[in-house]
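@channel sequence for tomorrow's demo:
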Amino acid sequence: MSTTTQKKDSVLNFIISALVGSFFIFSAITKILPIESFEFTLKSQLGFSDFASAYWARFFVGLEAGLGLLLLANIFGKGKWVIKMAFAMTVAFTVHLAILYARMGNDVNCGCMGDRFYMPPLQSILKNLVLLVLLGIIWKGARRNNSNTQHWVATLLLAALVSVPFIMFPYQTKVLKIEKVYQATEAHRIPKEDLRKGKHFVAFLSLTCSHCMVAGEELSKLKKENPDMPIYVLFGDVQRDSLRTEMLDNFIKESNFEGLPYSFIDNKDFIELSGGSVPALYWIEDGKIIRKPGVSELNAKEIELWLNRKN
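structure tokens (generated this afternoon):
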């Protein structure tokens, strides 16, 4: 092989490694937006406990980011262990996706790219197969490096990056102080169901918010298709009964809102519990926040998987 050809192959290998590394880093970033969603993915799909889900979510994010950075910098370690580890991790994820597809079908978000980028299992499997081919090319084309210095640099850098998510996102149980709404004296401000116990899907909606109207319509469809799904809506209250009735009637008309239990809560509590941004959707279990999805992330199969999962 000529020197020119070797240089071309070396440059091509460098570019492919940088692209794969960049994708690994991007994939890791999507999993922390927010990391609680990735925790839920591990909990629901693999049956991990809360603590185990939190631990492994941070470990996988750090591992993926660390391997991505090393590939981006074309640092492969002694015996190309960085490439081998990235290859093995991708194979493991692909096997999991195949099992998930067999269990749930293709109408579910695998969580490989977080909640921001919906990706069903089959599409993710195809994505991983492309990554495996590219990693194979890098593996074959990379020169064997027996440098102890590069080996320890790669090892220490990977260990440091694996620890970063644990530092940035310390594990803590998040609680929705739903008991606040049961301290009201007005009947229309007390939920008709006990949201403090068991699993519930709670939505905080404003009667004047167009995005909340979209959420109300989607939740109504979800409830209609799944009558037993424990969905409950909490609206921010207004002081005048006549104005409340008028605004609610308009909301129902504009959003086709029907079939959902609801009540009103004091505006101060509404802002605190919703986080000040609506629509705010929560999956809660005994008051503990399990997940906070967006309207576009509503998926009946995922919700049923969570509801039916035994603790």
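heads up for whoever presents: The chain has a mean pLDDT of 87.
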